[in-house]
UniProtKB/TrEMBL annotation:
Function statement: Responsible for synthesis of pseudouridine from uracil-55 in the psi GC loop of transfer RNAs.
InterPro entries, A to Z: PsdUridine_synth_cat_dom_sf, PsdUridine_synth_N, PUA_sf, tRNA_psdUridine_synth_TruB, tRNA_sdUridine_synth_fam1_C, TruB_C
GO function term, MF aspect, one: RNA binding
Catalytic activity, EC: 5.4.99.25
One of the protein's GO biological processes: tRNA pseudouridine synthesis
Matching SUPFAM superfamilies: Pseudouridine synthase (SSF55120)
Domain Pseudouridine synthase II N-terminal as annotated: residue spans: 29-170
Protein name in the entry: tRNA pseudouridine synthase B
Residue span, tRNA pseudouridylate synthase B C-terminal domain: 171-211
Reaction it catalyzes: uridine(55) in tRNA = pseudouridine(55) in tRNA
Similarity section: Belongs to the pseudouridine synthase TruB family. Type 1 subfamily.
Keywords linked to the UniProt accession: Isomerase, tRNA processing
Gene3D superfamilies reported in the protein's UniProt record: Pseudouridine synthase, PUA domain
């Protein structure tokens, strides 16, 4: 199996870990993922196959787009439909109120992860502690909301589109919007539609994937999946220097810490990093 990327449309009810394990067992290949989805959520998972797992960080950091349906008037402990109702509140607001509040969340914000999340607290998953009724002190983190739109408004149900930075919890975002409105809110339905340049419309459904006997024709070579990075072509001499851990000078590059795809001729050899016009290896594929 060559290092590659697999786009999977996850169904509701499965964890991201279950999808990874099922693909691993069925196709006998090393598999990693680049960002989890809650069991209640559907949509795009990017799986990395074989030595493509070396490049997980570049996919994990990509912005993400979600479609979220929120239910107003209740606060739940998990911030989603699977949780227990903590409080019910009257919904005495208009769609214009929601639109106005939504605008205040665009930009960089401080966000606390949900108590029921995979964040680690003293070596334990937060959801493990929360299920035991223990207090889960999760520190707020800074995230960025690039876009927040209200697509449909039929109070108490509202449908949103969010484009956010990596690390943003949509459950927390909807919960915080509900608190700002004063009526409370939780996520009723959630679907991840994009990760960076990758769209769920190009993904294979989990159900269809599990009927296949091989991944030919649906796995994307890692060098193609990374084409959101600039490419640098090296001759044999400079490629050899890079493999030996040496620097080479690239006068045309002036940005600080720019990651680039490296090719020796037409052959992808890995990812390099340019700092102050000097190129060095960052993650190279194993040499055959």
């Amino acid at each position: 199996m060559f290092p590659s990327v697999l786009l999977v449309d996850k169904p509701k009810g499965l964890t991201s870990f279950q999808v990874v394990e099922d693909v691993k067992r069925r196709f006998k290949v090393k598999v990693g993922h680049t960002g989890t989805l809650d069991p209640i959520a559907t949509g795009l998972l990017i799986l990395l196959l074989d030595t493509a797992t070396r490049y997980a960080e570049f996919f994990t950091k990509l912005p993400k787009e979600y479609l979220a349906t929120a239910r107003l008037g209740e606060i739940r402990d998990t911030y989603d439909a699977e949780g227990t109702v903590v409080e019910k509140r009257e919904v005495d607001i208009t769609c214009q109120d929601i639109h106005s509040v939504l605008k205040s969340f665009i930009g960089r914000i401080s966000q606390a992860p949900p108590p029921y999340s995979a964040k680690r607290v003293e070596g334990r998953r937060a959801y493990e502690l929360a299920r035991k009724g223990l207090s889960v002190p999760l520190k707020p983190v800074e995230v960025e909301i690039f876009n927040a739109q209200m697509l449909e408004c039929q109070i108490p149900q509202v449908r949103f589109l969010f484009c956010v930075s990596s690390g943003t919890y949509i459950r927390s975002l909807v919960h915080d919007i509900g608190l700002r409105l004063g009526c409370g809110a939780y996520v009723e339905d959630l679907r991840r539609t994009k990760i960076g340049p990758f769209d769920v419309s190009k993904a294979i459904s989990y159900e269809r994937l599990m009927t296949l006997t091989d991944l030919q024709g649906i796995a994307i070579p890692i060098w193609s999946a990374l084409d959101f990075m600039p490419a640098v072509e090296l001759d044999f001499k400079n490629a050899d220097k890079i493999r030996k851990g040496m620097f080479i000078t690239l006068p045309s590059y002036t940005k600080e810490k720019l990651f680039v795809r490296l090719y020796e001729g037409d052959t992808f050899i890995g990812v390099g990093v340019v700092e102050k016009n000097r190129l060095r290896a960052y993650r190279l594929l194993p040499q055959k």
